Amino acid sequence: MKSILGISAFYHDSSATILIDGEIIAAAQEERFTRIKHDASYPFNAVEFVLKFANLKLSEVDQIIFYEKPFLKFERLLETYVAFAPRGFKSFCKAMPVWLRDKLFQKKQLFNELKVHDEKFNDENKIFFSDHHLSHASSAFFPSPFSEAIVLTADGVGEWATSTVAIGINNNLEIKKEIHFPHSLGLLYSAFTYYTGFKVNSGEYKLMGLAPYGKPIYEEKIINNLIDIKDDGSFHLKQDYFNYATGLTMTNKKFDDLFGQDKRDPKKNKITQFHMDIAASIQKVTEDIMIKLARSLKKEYNLPNLCLAGGVALNCVANGKILKEKIFENIWIQPASGDAGGSLGAALALWHIEQKNLRTINMKDDMKGSYLGPEYSQNTIENELKNIGAKYEVLEEKDLIEKTVESLSNGDAIGWFQGRMEFGPRALGARSILGDARSTEMQKNLNLKVKYRESFRPFAPSILEEDVKEWFDIETKSPYMLLVANINSKKVIKMNDVEDKLFGIEKLNIKRSEIPAVTHVDYSARIQTVSKDTNPKFFELLKKFKEKTNSPVLVNTSFNVRGEPIVNTPTDAFNCFMGTELDNLVIGNCFLKKIDQNSQLKKDYKNEFELD
């Protein structure tokens, strides 16, 4: 039996993964344990969890691999400073002490951190380093259901690369092409995230959600001034509009002047039609680049399958457009596409590429539905709830599902906590907030009363796998909520002339389909198809809901409030339940009604977490 521990840390979304004989056994993000969103620190708790789950001590692990190469990253920092000098002196001075103290000697730092888990761990030679984008590419190809594929990765930046193309065949994966820093599609998108007043590395979802409210009227301005896009989709960013290579901000005054407005200050300025149009414009440019890249890669390598990873692969709208264009026969996207997935990819790269271990292709995929995190026994759940002072009823599974369906069909918002926690940013029916997608009020209520976030943010539908074609314009499964498709025309409610003339956010409350709570303003939805194989309890819930209501669709959003990581433990779930206007909580086989709880246990959750 051979074990590999993968670690991603020190930038954002730290995580740990354990493989045994090449099988993915467990993976989790550090933020879920520390309750610090996008926690970048050494993932002590995540490492402890994966080791415990695999029943291993650290000294028994065969190899440990870190997801990137610190020396190459340091080289980029130095070369960037030399290339742009004297600009960037301020950011250089800020970065240097941290690098010289911590990051440059990461092997020693890792060794010291690892020893805390197990004093018997004493072999520094067990520690290896992968390349950042090879880790992304490996996380996309090796768990995929394909024996061969083109693998496209795109994010902010790794060591030097910001986008790569690799070819995967069986247990081999080779990077063929790279685009290097400072030319980055991820950083371009993040620059607009910053400009519209959202947080870089977490607010990109908001920009994507805002885009359908606007029109891409600045598309030409972006293409003519900020980016030179070649016919094959490769690109070059014009650096005099950006500040990320040399400064402490993403954009500069020249960028503001180009669009005629200063960067939005979220504390002072509301989102206007201008920001919606800006969002629509950069989203359109991103989609067009991804489609051009996909077309040229298909033409060049002529393989039927595409795998995607890196932060840009979380842009599910762009993914949906590639799918709709039918460039490839099949597309598979790593559910933990961001840096968290680096721990998984690094471990798989070591197992398959370096150690040349053969790969068995799983026709579904090897991610186990991405349910790779901690789970809690019924006994543990009841003990935690008792200690908190919660009032609950324990039900048989059949009765629990019946009662949950009854509650959902009455318009209640429910916290749903079952089985192993998801790995990656999406809640997939293990740590989810659920609601009736047919409700006209559900989207607004969940955003304002439960999530405490902007009203424009869309929600995703979870649907029985076998019913997806009847409700959505999509031919493929979407188990990881990473593809956007339009609502089936039979389910659409057309807007009348008055509604059609509305602008931006005014469109929000128009009922535009039979499932308005999950229908975005452009008639699209980010779909999760639910299979009996990977999540039988959630599947059963959807099935019973369909029997009662004739609708196989539920609203599914992550079980947290804005700025909080997804809940991990039963106590996290109860705290979020008591700090929001959720009606009921279903945790293991326990059913909790809000009205039964002691009002003194209510939490002030609205200001508990920093704005994301």
Please describe what this structure looks like.
The strands form 4 sheets. The chain has a 9-stranded mixed β-sheet with strand order 13-21-20-14-15-19-16-18-17, with helices on both faces. A 5-stranded mixed β-sheet has the order 3-2-1-4-5, with helices on both faces. Helix 3 runs antiparallel to helix 4. Strand 6 and strand 7 (161-169) form a beta hairpin. The chain has 3 domains: 3-145 and 336-370, ATPase, nucleotide binding domain (Nucleotidyltransferase, domain 5), CATH 3.30.420; 179-333, Nucleotidyltransferase, domain 5 (2-Layer Sandwich), CATH 3.30.420.40; 378-601, DHBP synthase, CATH 3.90.870.20. The longest helix is centred in the middle third of the chain and has 29 residues, at 273-301. With 612 residues, it is an alpha/beta fold. The two termini are 42 Å apart. It is built from 20 helices and 21 strands.
Number of spatially distinct domains: 3
What integer value in Å does the Rg equal? Answer: 24 Å
| Proportion of residues in β-strands | 15-25%
CATH architecture of the largest domain: Alpha-Beta Complex
Query: In the CATH hierarchy, what is the superfamily of the largest domain?
Result: Carbamoyltransferase, C-terminal domain
Distance between the termini: 42 Å
- Biggest pleated-sheet summary: 9 strands, mixed
The CATH C-level class name of the largest domain: Alpha Beta
Uncertain residue ranges: none
CATH topology of the largest domain: DHBP synthase
Kindly report the average pLDDT value. 92
